[in-house]
Amino acid sequence: MAKPIHHIIKRACLVIIIVNAIYLTSCLIFYSKDNESIIQSIKNSIITPTYSYTHLEATDQDEATATNYGEEIKKLLEEVKVNKDNKYWLTNTKLSHTKLTVNANDFTNNSQSETSWKNKNSIFYDPRLTLSLYINYIKHNSGQEVSKEDLKVPFDWADWVDLTLLNEDLAQPLADRKNCDWIKKFTKIDQNSDISAIKCMDNSDLSPKLIKNLGFDSHEQLPGYVVYGYCENRAFHDTRIAQGKSYIFTHLQNPYKLIFLNRDGGTYEVDVEGTKSGIAKSGLMNEYLSNNFGNNKDVLKKINVGSELNLEFDPTKEFKSLKKEEKVQPMHLKSNEDSYKMYELLHNKDITKSPDLHLPNEAFHYSSSIVHEKFTLLERLRNLQDLTRSEDAFYNSLKLSREHNGNSEPAYFQMSTLSVIGDPRNADKDQGWHYDWRFFNGGLTYEREGWTKSELTIRTNIILERLVRNWFRFAEEKGLVSWLMHGPLLSWYWNGLTFPFDNDIDIQMPVKELVRLGENYNQTLVIEDLEEGYGKYLIDVGTFIHNRDISTTGNHIDARLIDVDSGIYIDITGLSTSDAPVPQLFYTNGVFGDKEKDMEKYNDRRKHFYTLDQLAPLKYSMLGGVPAYVPNKISSRLHFEYPSGLTRPEYLQWHFVPKLGLWLSEEQLKGAFDVNDYSVLLFHDSHVDKLSMMELVLDMSDEEMYKLLKSDDMILSEYYNTQKLTKLHEREKKYLFNIKNESATGSTDIVVEDRTELKSNAELELEYNKFVNKNFKMRKPSTIPLFQYERFEQPSHHEK
Predict the structure, then answer these.
(1) Distance in angstroms (rounded) separating the CA atoms of residues 44 and 377
(2) Element (H, E) at 542
(3) What are residue 311's DSSP bridge partners?
(4) Beta carbons of 693 and 737 less than 8 angstroms apart
(5) CA distance 355 to 618
(6) Is pTM, for the whole model, over 0.70?
(7) In the predicted model, what is the mean pLDDT of residues 451-474?
(8) Which residues cross the membrane (predicted)?
(9) Taking Cα atoms as reference points, which of 94, 98, 531 lies closest to residue 314?
(10) Count of domains for the chain
């Protein structure tokens, strides 16, 4: 339905402006010889308006029609709830497809069969088998008679990360396999350089001793290219994936520990052996058969005799069985480990008590004398006994930090730098900065055969939601204090969810907590609750976290939680005191005033500075249905980092839709409006006029909302999954912020300020405390598990 007359007038004015702009531009081109200055002149003429949201308070009932679209929307949501024939499969976030049937004889370590994976020159991967065997092993080998220190499990990354992309190469004769020249060909590097420049060895150059040291028996078990380190030169998308998978397969060290999260409280933990030994070689399957079928003659007679022994494996069933095992109890945080009493506070049953977390100044103090003391204690212990792998890594971290400073330390984290030019499938020009190169498994928006843009967006949402979910569940269980900052805090402000267009998740923590993370949990593989999904996340803490000066070598991030199935990660930075001067910008922009001049300040290693009252007390909130902390003072910090971020409802062709509480792309929104109301004709091509689309979205009627939901099952499903969360967040914002319209220079601007009444109004504070304590709890996942989506749902429901 077309818009009223004022929209037509506005269109006419817009056309006149465009015609004039074209005329002026042509004149500039005609009279100027400097094209660069012309382009800059046009850029400088662009105006970014700020919109008022007062019109959103108007009634939802459309006066121009007798149809009550509000009721029609309710009917749609009821239809989704019933979910006949699983039409709205995205709303069913419960874990499914948990069962896997395989021939168990193919995974025993004493089978001589050619079908045995021990004897094959290819890779098998299914997390359901891996997780079933490990959980069963823990159940039968943990307990009072076995100390935690004595129990270790074998490990091979090929059982935990999908490396089957290498099978195509492994299936070829040795002479026909791709070698390092193939990697070099698709890497931005001098093609005459030696292959050592790309940290690669040809399979044919490997000695029998090196092959054995890598954990293999023959050349045939390895790809033609063996990547042994990181090459910083840009590579094409598919080549970068191959580099990471080759490195994981051949050189990535085992994690130190496995931690299985448990939504019922506590964690199940086991140490990992240092040498590579996968399922097919370690005897894990042999032990499984012995533990579960030791008295079953029908099964025993089929083991290792060449016949098939098809068994069903279900990690969710195994996990439920583990939780019922009395002799194996989950590990719970001890009172003396709850450094700042966060765990105690969050498990308090008094709903009137404030969940705000106060932090002492000492949490941000980490002097060189403390580093020296820790180093000395570990050095003494090292002289008395062998250190554990974790202790030895922490010792070396202290040692190397003492030998370097922020100007000399080598960069620790390495990303999947991608070549953009010449790759038409990389339409969004993703340069790979937000993926760990080892676990990179494809760009989030990179064009994939058999995938639509909407399906890729769903994948992105799953990865980000599950990352946040599992970090904060882990952190709460271990009493580790952390909070949202930067982009995720801005995203939280808008709707309490993550941005679908930003894969950069930033978490901050006091330096004392960062050091505890490094000392106790570095190189830990955290496994998602197996009743919710099969996500696996590596905690990777940088070597130089003990240096708190500004890093000039790129070590601005102290630690990461890496999703090993995608390479996407959470950036974790510690805040501490340092000798770094506060940039004048913090004073000129009003972040610090006269009052803050003499206050103690804390910074990360990239020049983000804060005072204690800007950070604490931390406020308890939720991001995507996951309880999380946010800093004390929010609006001023966000306005400093993102000047229009709190008020501009559009970013890179994504629009915030107040009616839905969601960010949607322009492509998704087109179906809700008349094409004549948002498009303009430029040089015979129709384009979306950003300003018109913004106004249409902000002024969306119930009829247009209904039209949008009715036409797109994915949007309808997302709205159904998130509506309660976004509405809850709107209620929360009324406690935390004053959002008002102020007239300035003849226009109406939105002004967002932190609300301060909570500190002075006891009745309001009590109301807020009850609201938070009643509502902010770990909700069920709002997305389906990644493995389930990629392996089953996306292929089944693909939009052709």
Answers:
(1) 60
(2) none
(3) 102
(4) no
(5) 9
(6) yes
(7) 96
(8) 12-31
(9) 98
(10) 2
Q: Is residue 20 part of a domain?
A: yes
Place of tokens 């020249």: 181
Please report which confidence band the pLDDT of residue 460 belongs to, taking 50, 70 and 90 as the band edges. very high
Q: Would you give the DSSP letter of residue 266? A: S
CA distances for 125 relative to 129, 163, 515, 524, 536, angstroms: 8, 7, 35, 21, 14
Angle, vertex CA 504, rays to CA 467 and CA 514, nearest 5: 70
pLDDT value of residue 685? 72
d(CA 546, CA 551): 12
pLDDT tens track for 196-237 = 999 999 999 999 999 999 999 999 999 999 999 999 999 999
Q: Which of 144-148, 505-509, 588-592 has the highest mean pLDDT?
A: 505-509
Do 270 and 151 meet the contact criterion of CB atoms below 8 Å apart? yes
The DSSP letter of residue 448 is -
In the numeric block, which tokens belong to residue 423? 């790759």
pLDDT reading at 59 higher than 70? no
Supply 352's token pair: 């009137």
Q: What percent of the chain has pLDDT over 70?
A: 90
The verdict on residue 793 lying in a domain is no
Domain that holds residue 22: 1-46
Alpha-carbon gap, residue 692 to 690, rounded angstroms: 6
Chain centroid, CA 514 distance in Å? 19
Q: Residue 117: CB partners within 8 Å, gap ≥ 6?
A: 106, 107, 124, 279, 280
* Residue 257 maps to a domain: no
Q: Which residues neighbour 265 within 8 Å (Cβ) at sequence distance 6 or greater?
A: 330, 332, 477
Per DSSP (E only), the strands in 650-733 are: 650-651, 654-657, 662-665, 679-682, 685-688
* Strand, coil or helix: 744: strand
Q: Where are the alpha helices (DSSP H) in 591-701?
A: 612-615, 635-641, 666-669, 690-698
Q: Residue 28: what residue type?
A: L
Per-residue CA distances from 14 to 38, 414, 655 (Å): 22, 47, 21
Which has the closest alpha carbon to 799: 461, 450, 458, 460? 450
Return the bridge partners of 225, or none: 202
Are the C-beta atoms of 268 and 138 separated by less than 8 Å?
yes
